[in-house]
Amino acid sequence: MKRSPLLRLLALAAPFAGWMALAALLGVLTIGSSVALMATSAWIIARAALHPPIGTLSVAVVGVRFFGITRGVLRYLERLVSHQTTFRLLARLRVWSYQRLEPLAPARLGGQHSGDLLARLVADIDTLENIYLRAIAPPAVALLVTAAMTAFLATYDWRLGVALATGLLTAGFVIPLTLRGLSARAGRKSVMVRGELTARAVDTVQGLADLLASNAAERHLAALHRLQQSFSQQQRRMAALSALQTALTSLVAGLTTLAILILAIPLVRAGRLDGVLLAVLVLAALASFEAVQPLPAAFQHLSRSLTAARRLFELADAPPAVRDPATPLPLPGDLSTGEVLRVENLRFRYTLADPPALDGVSFNVPAGSIVALVGPSGAGKSTLVALLLRFWDYQEGSIHLAGHDLRAYAQDDVRHMISVVNQQTYLFAGTILDNLRLALPALTEEEAQAALAAAELDSFVAALPDGLHTWIGEGGLRLSGGERQRLAIARAVLKDAPLLLLDEPTANLDPLTERAILRTLFTALPGRTTLLITHRLVELERAHTILVLQGGRIVERGPHADLLAARGLYWRLWAAQQTELALAQSSQNADGMSTAL
Amino acid sequence: MNLDRRLWHQVARARGLLLAAISAGLLAGLLLIAQAYLLSQAISRVFLGSATLDDLAPLLGMFAAVAIGRSLALGGAELAGHHLADRVKMALREQLLAHLVALGPAYVRDERSGELAHTATEGIEALHAYVSEYLPQLALAVLLPLIMLTVVFPLDPLSGIVLLLTAPMIPLLMILIGKAANWQSRRQWTQLSRMSAHLLDVLQGLPTLKIFGRSREQAATIAAVSEQFREATMSVLRVAFLSAFVLEMLATISTAIIAVEIGLRLLYGRLDFDRALFILILAPEYYLPLRQLGARFHAGVSGVTAAARIFAVLETRPADCAPSPAITPPPIPTPPFELHFADVHYAYDGGDRPALNGLTLHLPAGQTVALVGPSGAGKSTVAHLLLRFLAPTAGRITVNGRDLCDLPADDWRAQIAWVPQLPYLFDGTVADNIRLGRPDASLEAVVHAAQQAGADGFIRALPDGYDTRIGERGARLSGGQAQRLALARAFLRDVPLVILDEATANLDPETEASILAAMETLRRGRTALVIAHRLHTIRDADQVAVLMDGRVVQYGPPAALSAQPGPYRRLLRAVEGNQ
Question: What residues of chain A, 43 to 102, have a C-beta less than 8 Å from chain B?
Fold first, then answer.
């Protein structure tokens, strides 16, 4: 049986149990101070009403002043300790999540469409940040205060204790939990309608041009109006329940006070309770209701946290798509001769329900050769890249790298043998040097400069005010597509792996930049065994063999000139692209514009 | 005090509910005072008198009634607050969406669309707590302490003075704390989002990290960044919590002072016990509304921030062209349409980014004009001007001699079928998406249009055929399929003017051939503007217009153009030379 998300969260929090206990204790003492302040104050005025000598009050006067101060101090300490705990827990959660998610990437993390999934995941982890502070601590404190106050009142008469405990538990637990049960359906419906409303609003904004052109905007707004009304109806239902909760909680506090009075008055009359204590007990009981006030919000937060935790655990529990063999082969030695890569009868589908993405692909890449794999979108090119990098495991056929099946190596070793320049060079938030050190951690600035020179990016970097130390990536300098790709080339130069895998390296570039980048690639990494995967049919004269992939199969193969002469799919794709290329270049010829880089 | 004038104006439209929320809150406050009074009376009569439970029955009955009344008032106040927020949110969301539609696609550009959609959904929701809790509490935080002061003063001026003197310190401290809290929450938020951004950065870059064999060591980096965050935030919080500490302290110490002060005067017989107890019970309640306001400060800040974003959109003027004054909109001219651009200028970003610089272009009735030119030459701008998404900054566009600006935009668009390169598919079924421009079309008509667009085949292969849901939560269609749906939309609309944007070459040749064929059928007999990327389309057009830097540099039938020197011939040569 799967363990509940709450238990798993608590297990993750276990190392901080001591801190959490301390924070809870401080929380109890904080409320204890208010209770004691009211109780002592009540005692002073009740005693004073009997006009005793002043000395009898002096201890209590000191007590009142003491509790007046301790409440603030304790609250302050409690906040410090609980926030420390929260942040420690958050750090642990983040590291734990990362360690669980790392083996899953990218296959189990949504592949190319991972953006939304990952953003939600990080948001979920942030939601869990407050689980201790806002969901676990308040009920713990409330229970401890209830126990202490019940014991205190029960020392005078057990029925007083029972009355107060009933009141506190009803206000703090019974009412919020019952109403949560009642509102669960309305809540789910409300979340659903809100989702629809959001989807519609996004549709309106993002599809506005299409809506206006089709005269459909008014109709769309009318549909939105109806959704709004239904959302508002749900919200009103939720609001009614929430108002009911507020009313009931206040009523329970009032009735508990009344019950204590009704129980205590006969005790005073019977002489079993000192009259002075009547005010003390009533005011102390009233003050203790502070402990249950945050509970409705806490339960709400708890259920939100559990939803987040469930999503996180569900993802983290997924089995990795690829596992290392028990005893991986060592890295092969020299790869400068012979056959670097051989693919035989490769078949792969992402799930059983999907059509095959690769349907019997065979080819080989001899050392020192350049092989190009081309084809329209959806032909299976990205799939092949993912298999080569061991992001997925194939189902049929084989891939041999340096003479051995890819699956016999450790994943890291496979990737160690391949340099990659892909379509969207990922730049991490950090300096240019940081991003280069990814390829070579011990990189010196001189070596970095040399690699940038090979990638023809040296003069660009030299012109930046901070040079190599310029901050790039999220929140930093925005690099153009060409600059990013040159940085990727510099990384590939630094990594210096025997096989160069170029995965759509120029997909998002304009034609002039595209040619410039390809030229740099081949000059910076001369004679490298290269597999170029692309839908852009540019500079393919360099390739020794071109493989044309369509619908998961290789439909044509041969050098550029032969394929053009054959007038098949390759030629058709090429001809279409030439028109675009000519269109783009015609302007550049006309006004001498150059956008290289 | 975190009030936004424009938002206030919206709230004022539902002022009845706001008044209801405030008066119910006030009523609850008055009943609280009554409760305190009854409680002090009951205790006093038992303690100093000799009242029995039976003697006190009427008093305790009243206490119960007041408690019930108070809980009703509290619930009512909350309910009124929620309804108020609901009303305001609904009105604002409708205004915002209608305004976005009026602003049109020129304003709702891609890079901004995510943020705008967020404003229309989450941004509006962020107002809920502000309107339902913060606004009423703002009034109560002033009124309730005043009421309590007027009750306490006649009973015991000295306690009244203590309360009066401490009261102004609370708002004063609140402002200070508010500033600190604001700064603190902003700073902490920045820190937290930076830390989250780091985790997201690492997760998104995982494939890259794996390629370089550096993914496992990132756990240590994440731990280090989290630790830094903890230390940085704690050093901020240590100070920030101090201000809350002072506020808390003020409330408890004042209560302590009052307790000692009334206790001593009781001792010397200068005050009655029941009054003293009454004041003691009221003392902590006196500070409560202000402390609650402090607790809602965050709702105040985020509400005002959200409101600012919403009103920034609402206060943007739509950029549609001004029709000639004092004429009733003329009827749409009778097709076929002949269109003429005369010296049209257009610049984006309020004139900073010129796109068209004196474009003159003729679209003869019933003919196809192919628009060619490099990206950035202004091809899409021409299409958007025709669709009235944009209005020329200078120059005129005429339809059969009539100024396009004088025609009602909706009526004009009803004459156009537009097939963009990346059509937007809406959350809904395939059939609904084809019906977009003709919601009343029969299924037969939809199927016929899909057949003409070459879409019928793949639609039938979808799990539920024409009833398959697509969009965000349904099947994902490929780019070629999406464009064929847009073509089906255009066929179904059956209108005299078509604007086509050919896809760039990344499609399967069969898909592409079917799209080109469908586009040809659609153009036939209609006035058509094609943003062309295919040699075949260009050669097949009645007229070719070569666009460069926002101007038409060559115009004429393709055969004639290819016979004269110029960009078009260079283009043809480049293409043919390559082939």
Answer: 44-49, 51-52, 54, 57, 61, 64-65, 67-69, 71-73, 75-76, 79-80, 83-84, 87-88, 90-91, 94-95, 98-99, 101-102
Whether chain A has a CB inside 8 Å of the CB on B334: the answer is no
Q: Does residue B203 form part of some domain?
A: yes
B57 touches chain A (CB under 8 A): no
For residue A104, give the amino acid letter: L
- Asked if B103 and B258 count as a contact pair (C-beta separation under 8 A), the reply is no
Our count of domains for chain B comes to: 2
Q: Determine, for residues A68 and B252 on separate chains, whether the beta-carbon distance falls below 8 Å.
A: yes
CA distance B151 to B36: 12
Q: Are residues B27 and B144 in the same domain?
A: yes
DSSP string, B519-531: HHHHHTTSEEEEE
Give the distance from residue A209's alpha carbon to the nearest chain B alpha carbon, in angstroms: 5
Q: Does A280 lie in the same domain as A357? A: no
Round to whole Å and give the CA distance between A85 and A73. Answer: 18
Which of A46, A129, A216 has its CB closest to that of B436? Answer: A216
Residue B153 has pLDDT above 90, yes or no: yes
- For residue A551, the domain's CATH number is 3.40.50.300
Residue contact B113–A67, C-beta within 8 A = no
Measured between alpha carbons, how far is A42 from A36 in angstroms, rounded to an integer? 10
From A248's Cα to the closest Cα of chain B, the distance in A is 7
Chain A residue at shortest CA distance from B437: A214
Taking the C-alpha atoms of residue B262 and residue B268, their distance in angstroms, rounded to an integer, is 10
Q: Are residues A499 and A375 part of one domain?
A: yes
The predicted model gives B20-25 an average pLDDT of 97
Q: Is A485 on the interface with B (CB under 8 A)?
A: no
Q: Is residue B68 domain-shared with residue B117, that is, in the same domain?
A: yes
Residue of B249, B493, B570 with shortest CB distance to A72: B249
Q: A493-509 in b/e burial notation, b at 16+ Cβ within 10 A?
A: bbbebbbbbbbbbbbeb
Please check whether residue A200 lies inside any domain of the structure: no
Cβ-proximal residues to A84 (8 Å cutoff; 6+ apart), any chain: A19, B230, B234
Are residue B295 and residue B147 in the same domain, yes or no?
yes
Nearest to A304 by CA among A185, A172, A173, A127: A127
* Cis ω for the linkage preceding A106 (within 30 of 0): yes
Domain that holds residue A478: 339-591
Residues in chain B with CB shorter than 8 Å from the CB of A197 are: 121
For B74, the closest of A69, A210, A250 (CB atoms) is A250
* B541-558: b (≥16 Cβ within 10 Å) or e: bbbbbbbbbbbbbbbbeb
pTM of the model: 0.83
Indicate whether B60 belongs to any domain. Answer: yes
Beta-ladder partners of A534: A374
Contact A78, A55 (CB under 8 A): no
Looking at the structure, tell me whether residues A20 and A90 fall in a common domain: yes
* Domain boundaries, position B226: 165-270
Tally of CB atoms within 10 A around A353: 6
Is the minimum CB–CB distance between B504 and chain A shorter than 8 Å? yes
Instruction: Output the pLDDT for position A590.
Output: 42
Q: How many domains does the structure of chain A reveal?
A: 2
In a domain, A255, yes or no: no
Contact: B219, A228; criterion CB under 8 Å: no
Contact with chain B for residue A127, Cβ under 8 A: no
**Per-residue model confidence (pLDDT) at position B568:** 86
Q: If you search the block for the tokens 């300790």, which residue do you land on?
A: A81
pLDDT at A201 over 60: yes
ipTM value of the model? 0.85
Residue B579 has pLDDT above 60, yes or no: no
Contact state of A243 with B214 under an 8 Å Cβ cutoff: no
Q: Residue A1: what pLDDT?
A: 47
Q: Distance between CA atoms of A195 and B510, rounded to whole angstroms?
A: 38
